[in-house]
Structure formats: structure tokens, C-alpha cells
Design goal:
The protein has 862 residues and is of the alpha/beta class. It has 22 helices and 41 strands. The longest helix is centred in the middle third of the chain and has 18 residues.
């Protein structure tokens, strides 16, 4: 986690489902509307009475002795607030007069007042959340959409799924040149028009991942889809009239580089229009060693956009895996829905929504970053469809059920394999101080309570299970110790809705870009948390050997889920602008994005988490201006990266003479980023860009600068206005950024907005500096500064790296030394070498815990 720079006790923010249960209403006799008055966390004081406070607030604002008919609902169990009928002036008085004091943030006060809205709980799709509604609510060019072919490079597909039925589809587009070679018992149709297998298993999806991503992109509309009742509604893809082609490169064993390159090769030749690939290397790789970067370069040369997941190794910085500028890289964010699993203890306490006061960098985070509705929830996170009918069962801590003949108490505490004694576990709820409770299940436990190392994300479980924060787990252990016969039960998962989204998920990999350091990555964020989509019946939804269930639809989380959302958006844009280049489509997505926030603070809460922002499908169809790029531009960029002709050929496949090179920061990219080195107090950075008018003729765009993170930037744009006489006309401009006091732990950023009164073309501007060098990091005092324990082994590793430029260490997920990656920069070969790391994960790109994480300190590639 990023370290916090200042200490303010702030209110935590959350709105849950009950906020949506009060219908919007207008009083017939007065201009009153239902508003939700949100007051943050419940005060810690035992004498505080929420409902009395709410009544007093209303009486003070309205001047009425009786609030009958005014107060509709008090929120007093999990957070503080109420719903009431208010006039506009009363709403404004509450919002302005009763704000919590900056200096007394423990005092009860109003955090926000917003109009009540009817949320449509029956929908199960994230597409509605993004504004891409179903049916006639969204304008569609169905003729072009039906002629659009999406290539999905993944783990195969389930051809029988209703999501891929060809009912109502005509024959494949004439441009289609591919085949259906899915293997035995695999049939294509006019929706799923092709399949290729590179694994010798056949194209059928045995993982579930490929079916899920494909249906998210272009699955048919399926009514009453749910996961055991959760998320019930109409499920559909972003472009349901489009055709799908499956390229299977992954199995449970992994996704080989050669298979990926072969899939790109075939997809380009087959005539696909867009490629979606939710597969990553596991660590940032040089372009010439990255099969996705190489394959996608060839794709863009043929006019095919590649959309790729950012990776699931966040929130530490420099964990982003998809770094090439010709790829559209997607981070993962939440929607207004979350899955929560309550744990009820024998003393009547329910672990569901306890709030704590976080600390943030400055007051900016009070208003914006802390609005993450899931950031500080103390609840069980899982997708648990098993019911214990409220029955209380004996509660036992793993260390108290140790199989002493085989394991230590410490191993039993974590419920490691073979370490629990069956007679002490069977028929009980077992608490494991780790992320794995399946050993408890194997020994007859009725339910498990484990540690959640992936905050704000719920994963499907194979038996009654709730994953708790470390704080709640500690409270649970204290309860067990304080009771002679502790009891607990795990309830079925519930849905909770909040309007406080989108926020980047903690697991989503962060920048900065470690390969092309002047290219901002990720590019965009999209829904990737708890996404319901089609699934394969070949595997259980929990991927556990103990789980015998088979389902048509399931819930998954990861940047693997956000990637297909943006693929669908890109395809949607292309249906209106089939002549646009891949870079124009990418630009439209980035420059029309919603501004947003991340679930962390400091370095990883910035544009390094979300890029340009959250994708807005409707606005992206009419961006006004776009930043265009060609294959020649990307080649000049590679030359500007100081790649030699041999290396450029490895990427592009063609012999290149680097005559006209482009400085990486001057690539005509929709965002602007510069990494600075050295210790100079003042800096000047120059960006050069060219935009193409795709809006209207005779238009004038004026520039505006909005400062974002940090206020020590001075940004000038020359010229300050762009005049376009005709459509497709190009105009160039220069951005000069000056500033001082650049902190290695927090970037400086701003937004450049070009506006003609109708279109707002927004580009993030980011300036950051080199992180702490490895030579300094080998000092214990520096390690302590970054929150790391300077144990002998870690210090030895850093010193060895500084001395020999090469060292290796095997650690485990959650080990504090994993954070070493947060602070160490890639250093030039002439210096000390850098640190690279890799999380070994499953082919499905899920968050994987308790697996070996090789960390290798190696020579940098640059």
C-alpha cells in the first residue's frame, strides 16, 4: 500500500442498498423532494442517538415542531444518515451549514446531500452502469454491428451457451476468411463464426474465463440470468449483434507465447476487426520479449485495435504489465453493486459494515478519493450461495485444532494442508488466518472464515465462506478467546448498491510504465469487479475440486473482466465510424472518459491507477477531436526509445532504418506523461501534439487547464485556440509544463481540455520523478521510511543487487518484502540494476493468493 503523507481523521463513505429503497417523490402541496442526507460513519460515542439527531437536524432546518411525513428513514446500524422530504433551499442549508469541521472531524456532520433515485435492481449488466442501455434506449447501427467481427484470444469458449446462439443472425460477413476448427464435438454458427485451438485440447472452454470475456463483449441479451439468484436480470454484451471468433491459447497450465503469437497471426489474416486479450505476462516485459506487444503491433499495422488487461498485481506502483502505446490498456474499477456476506456471531454481533477512520494525504482526498464506497467496509467478502439457515455452529480457531503430529501451531493457524485435526474441525465454523479455508472443508467443516487479501472483491466460494479484513479477523479471534462456547454462522451473500462508483479496484495493476516511461499507462478504466457473465459448465464456478456445481453464469473479478468491456465499447464506436483508425478509436475512448479516483492514496491513487478515467461509451462516439497515429509513428517512437534496427525488426517484423525518430513523450498520444530524473528544483517539459477534427466544420476549440494532483504546475498551451474550417482537418499545438518540488512519492498532474462549447476533449498531463534508487534502498533507515522491516535477508538482497547487479529471492504473496517493488526503480545498466517481480497466477488471471512469487533483481533493459 502507498504510504500516507499527512494525517487527517476523515469520515468514511458508503451508501448501501437501503438507500435505494425509498422511492423518489414530490409532495403535491409543497416543492419537496426526497433527499438522502449522508453523514458518514456512526460516531464512536455510546451516548449518541442517531434518530434523535436526525429529528433535531430536521427541526432546526425546517422550523417545524413536528417532522411527521418528513423523516422517511434513518440509517443507524452501519452508517449515519437519513432520508427526508426537503425543499431545495432546505437541502442547501443542510449541505452548507452542517458540514463536519476540518479540525473536528469526529463531530457529527453532513457529508453530502443528494437526490434520491430509483435504481433498476433487476439489471445484471455493467453496461447500463456505463450508460450503454439495452433496446431503443441506445442508438445502434445494427447493420455495421452485425458486420463487426471480434477476435477473443483467451481460454476458449462454450459454443452451446445461449449468449452465443445465432437465432436471428444471417450468414457471416463476406470479409470473414477464417475457419471453425474447434475440435471434437465443437460446432460454430452464425454468431460464433469461427474457432481455433492452439492447446491440443480443442476450443471448448475448460476454465470458464474465455466464455465469460466473450459474452461480456458481444453476448446475446439473456433474460433472468443470475448466479443462484444473485445479480438477477438481463445479461448482455456491449455489441450483441456482433460476431465472435474464439482463439484458444490458454489452459489451466498457462498461455504459451507461441500460441499467443499464432493466434494474433491467424486473427489478423482471418479478418477480425478488433482483438480482445485478457492475458498478461505477469510482469512488465520489453516489447521485443512480449508476445502481446509484438502481435498487437502487427494487428495495428493492419488497422486492428488490440485491447489488453492491465494486470492484477496492484495496488503497488510499477506493476502494470501491458505497456505498449499501440495497445489499449484497461484497468479495473467497481460498479454501483457489491456482494457482501454477513457473519453472525453467537453474541449477536454481525460482521458486515463497520467503518474506520482512514488517513489521507490532504483535504482533496476528503472529498474525492475517500468516496470509494468499499474502501473501509469491514465486512465479509465472498459470493456465497450456500445457506446455513441461520443455524449457529461451534466456532474454532485453526491453531486450536492443530494436527500436532504433522504441523506446527503456526501452520494450523493458517489452515495449511494436513495441519488440522478432523475431530476438532468437523461440523464447525473454522477460522483461518490466511486466505485458504479449503483444508477446513476437507476435514468436514461446515463453514470457513478466512483472511481477505483482495479488498473490495468477492470471489465465488465452494462452501459457506466469508473473507474478512485482518482487523475483523482479529476481532473474531478475540471473541473466540473470550467465550467458552463461541458460535457463528455465515449467511448467504447479499447485494448492496451504491452510487459512489466508479473507483479503481485495489488489485488493478498500477503504473508508472517501466518500459516506455514517458507513456502513461493504463489508458482507461472499466468495470472489472464482480462481473456476472456466461460461464463454462466444464468447471465449477469456484474452480475447487470440492465444488460439484455447474452453472451457465458466474461472477468473476479482475482486469480480465474490464478488458472485454472496453473491447465492446471500441466495437460500438467502430459501428458509427468504420473508417476510423485504431488510434482514433482509442483516442475517442480516452479523451471522453469520466474523471475518477482510486481505492488507495498517494502514488497509486493517481492517473497511474486509471489513466484517462472511466470509459464513457456514448460520449466516445462523438469526441470532437482525436489524436491519430500510424504504423510509421509507432516505428519512429521505437527509434526514439533508442532501439537499434535489429530490435525494432523483432517488434515490427520489418527492416527499419531509424532516420526520423520521435521522442517518446512527443508520440501523438491522447495523454501526456514525462518521467524526470535528477534532483533539480525546477523543471520544464515540452509536449507536441496534433489533433484531427472529427466534429463539425468551422469550429473553434479553446484550451483550458485544470490542475489535478499537486498545485505546483504551470501549464501553457500554444496556440491557446484551434480553428478548424473543415472536418478531418489537422492542427498542431505545444504544451509547456514548468514546476518545482517534485516528490518521488506523488506525481504532479493536470488536465488539458479543448472545448468548442459542445465537445470537451480531455487529456491528462502527468509529470513524475525517478523513485528511490536501489543503492539507497539497501539502507535500513530508508527501508523503514517506506514501511518495510529491514530484516537481514532483505537487506542482504538489496546489498547483493547493488554489488553484483543480480540476486534472486522466493517470497510469498503478502510477505512485507513484496513491497520492495513499490520503492525500487529501474536503473540504467551503467548503474546498479533494477528490480523486477512476477506474481505466478492462474490462466484465468484471477487474483491468486498463497502461491510462489519469484522476485528477481536483475539488470534493467534500458
Amino acid at each position: 500500500m502507498a504510504k500516507l503523507l499527512a494525517f487527517f481523521c476523515l469520515f468514511s463513505y458508503i451508501i448501501v442498498l437501503s438507500l435505494c429503497s425509498v422511492s423518489a417523490a414530490i409532495d403535491d402541496n409543497q416543492d419537496q423532494q426526497v433527499y438522502v442526507v449522508y453523514m458518514g460513519a456512526l460516531p464512536s460515542s455510546e451516548v449518541y442517538t442517531p434518530m434523535s439527531d436526525h429529528m433535531n437536524i430536521l427541526q432546526g432546518i425546517t422550523g417545524e415542531s413536528s417532522n411527521e411525513g418528513r423523516l422517511l428513514r434513518s440509517y443507524k446500524r452501519s452508517f449515519n444518515g437519513f432520508a427526508a422530504r426537503l425543499t431545495q433551499s432546505e437541502r442547501e442549508r443542510i449541505a452548507s451549514e452542517l458540514k463536519p469541521s476540518i479540525f473536528f472531524l469526529d463531530k457529527e456532520g453532513v457529508v453530502s446531500v443528494f437526490p434520491n433515485k430509483n435504481l433498476q435492481l433487476q439489471t445484471t449488466t455493467s453496461w447500463d452502469f456505463m450508460g450503454l442501455k439495452k433496446g431503443k434506449a441506445t442508438n445502434r447501427n445494427l447493420a455495421v454491428e452485425s458486420n463487426t467481427i471480434i477476435g477473443v484470444i483467451d481460454a476458449g469458449i462454450t459454443p452451446e451457451s445461449e449468449s452465443f446462439s445465432d437465432k436471428g443472425f444471417g450468414p457471416p460477413p463476406q470479409k470473414w476468411k477464417g475457419v471453425c476448427s474447434g475440435g471434437k464435438n465443437f460446432t460454430c454458427n452464425n454468431k460464433l463464426i469461427g474457432a481455433r485451438d492452439y492447446t491440443s485440447e480443442g476450443s471448448r472452454d475448460t476454465v470458464g474465463h474465455g466464455t465469460h470475456t466473450a459474452s461480456t463483449i458481444a453476448g446475446n441479451a439473456i433474460q433472468d440470468a443470475s448466479f443462484y439468484g444473485l445479480g438477477n436480470g438481463t445479461m448482455r454484451g456491449g455489441v450483441p449483434a456482433s460476431r465472435i471468433v474464439s482463439y484458444k491459447v490458454c489452459t489451466w497450465l498457462g498461455c504459451s507465447s507461441d500460441s499467443i503469437l499464432a493466434a494474433f497471426d491467424d486473427a489478423i489474416a482471418d479478418g477480425v476487426d478488433i482483438i480482445s486479450i485478457s492475458v498478461n505476462m505477469g510482469y512488465p516485459s520489453p516489447f521485443e520479449e512480449d508476445p502481446v506487444a509484438i502481435g498487437s503491433f502487427h494487428a495495428i499495422a493492419k488497422g486492428i485495435l488490440t485491447v489488453n488487461s492491465a494486470g492484477n498485481n496492484g495496488p503497488e506502483p510499477k506493476t502494470l504489465e501491458s505497456v505498449a502505446p499501440w495497445i489499449l490498456t484497461v484497468a479495473a474499477s467497481n460498479t454501483n453493486r457489491a456482494f457482501l456476506t454477513k457473519v453472525v456471531l453467537g453474541n449477536g454481533k454481525t460482521l458486515v459494515v463497520r467503518l474506520k477512520k482512514p488517513v489521507f494525504d490532504d483535504l482533496y482526498y476528503l472529498v474525492f478519493v475517500s468516496l470509494n464506497p468499499f474502501l473501509n467496509m469491514k465486512q465479509g467478502k465472498s459470493v456465497n450461495t450456500f445457506g446455513l439457515n441461520g443455524t449457529m455452529y461451534p466456532l474454532v480457531y485453526g491453531k486450536s485444532a492443530v494436527n500436532s503430529s504433522a504441523c506446527s501451531v503456526e501452520s494450523a493457524e493458517k489452515c495449511e494442508e494436513g495441519c488440522l485435526q478432523e475431530s476438532l474441525v468437523k461440523g464447525k465454523v473454522v477460522v483461518c488466518n490466511s486466505t485458504d479455508s479449503y483444508e477446513a472443508l476437507a476435514n468436514g467443516a461446515v463453514a470457513g472464515l478466512s483472511l481477505n487479501r483482495t479488498p473490495n472483491v468477492a470471489f465465488v466460494t465452494s462452501f459457506p465462506l466469508s473473507a474478512l479484513s485482518q482487523e475483523d479477523l482479529n476481532s473474531l479471534v478475540s471473541y473466540i478467546k473470550s467465550e467458552s462456547s463461541p458460535l457463528a454462522t455465515v449467511l448467504r451473500t447479499e447485494e448492496s448498491f451504491s452510487q459512489l462508483a466508479p473507483v479503481v479496484a485495489a488489485f488493478s495493476s498500477r503504473g508508472p510504465n517501466t518500459i516506455a516511461t514517458d507513456i502513461l499507462k493504463p489508458d482507461i478504466s472499466a468495470p472489472g469487479v464482480e462481473i456476472l457473465a456466461a460461464f463454462s459448465p466444464e468447471v465449477s464456478p469456484s474452480s475447487s475440486v470440492y465444488d460439484t456445481r455447474r452453472v451457465k453464469y458466474s461472477v468473476l473479478s479482475g482486469t480480465s473482466m474490464s478488458c472485454p468491456h472496453v473491447t465492446g465499447v471500441a466495437a460500438y464506436i467502430r459501428t458509427f465510424h468504420p473508417q476510423w483508425s485504431p488510434s482514433m478509436i482509442k483516442s475517442a475512448i480516452m479523451t471522453t472518459a469520466w474523471p475518477m479516483n482510486a481505492s488507495e492514496t498517494g502514488f497509486v491513487s493517481t492517473e497511474f491507477a486509471y489513466g484517462a478515467g472511466h470509459v464513457d461509451p456514448i460520449s466516445a462516439t462523438n469526441p470532437g477531436l482525436v489524436y491519430d497515429l500510424t504504423k510509421a509513428d509507432y516505428t519512429a517512437f521505437l527509434c526514439g526509445m533508442k532501439y537499434n534496427a535489429t530490435t525494432v525488426k523483432l517488434i515490427s517484423g520489418e527492416a527499419v532504418t531509424c532516420i526520423g525518430e520521435t521522442a517518446p513523450r512527443n508520440l501523438n498520444y491522447p495523454s501526456m506523461s514525462a518521467k524526470l530524473s535528477g534532483s533539480k528544483s525546477f523543471f520544464t517539459v515540452i509536449f507536441k501534439r496534433t489533433v484531427t477534427n472529427v466534429g463539425t466544420q468551422n469550429s473553434i476549440y479553446k484550451s483550458k487547464i485544470v490542475l489535478n494532483h499537486g498545485s505546483k504546475l504551470n501549464v501553457k498551451v500554444f496556440p491557446s485556440a484551434l480553428v478548424f474550417k473543415k472536418v478531418n482537418e489537422k492542427q498542431s499545438f505545444t504544451v509547456i509544463v514548468t514546476g518545482s518540488a517534485l516528490d518521488s512519492k506523488l506525481l504532479l498532474s493536470a488536465n488539458l481540455i479543448w472545448s468548442d462549447g459542445t465537445h470537451n476533449v480531455r487529456s491528462p498531463i502527468v509529470v513524475y520523478k525517478t523513485l528511490i534508487p536501489l543503492s539507497e534502498f539497501s539502507e535500513a533507515s530508508v527501508m523503514k521510511k517506506y514501511g518495510l522491516k529491514p530484516d537481514a535477508e532483505t537487506l542482504d538482497i538489496a546489498n547483493t543487487a547493488a554489488r553484483q547487479k543480480s540476486a534472486k529471492l522466493l517470497i510469498y504473496w503478502g510477505d512485507p518484502r513484496e513491497k520492495i517493488c513499490e520503492a525500487v526503480d529501474h536503473i540504467p545498466l551503467s548503474s546498479l540494476g533494477g528490480l523486477e517481480w512476477m506474481i505466478m497466477g492462474s490462466v484465468s488471471n484471477h487474483i491468486v493468493n498463497n502461491v510462489a512469487c519469484p522476485v528477481t533483481i536483475v539488470k534493467s533493459h534500458h
